[in-house]
Amino acid sequence: MIEVFVNVYFVKVLKGMTVLQDCEIAGVDIPRFCCHSCLSIARNCCICVIEVEKTPKPFASYAMPSLPGLFSLLLSSHSSRRY
């Protein structure tokens, strides 16, 4: 188990999970279209783009692995809405 910080929540998650899964556990809803458990995953719509603290650009949350330690997802920021 690793501990991550999602907006204002500390969440313990399994190693190997994605940021999208971390947010689901924390109860934070990230809009998405192509990354759903009932669909074969195309992973090309980029609706789930988020900002991760101390990274140079926004990332698709399905592709960002959970990292041990503290990182912050700024889900409501202006720059993440541009993508």
Automatic annotation (TrEMBL):
Entry GO MF terms: iron-sulfur cluster binding
Protein name according to UniProt: Uncharacterized protein
Originating organism: Quercus rubra (Northern red oak)
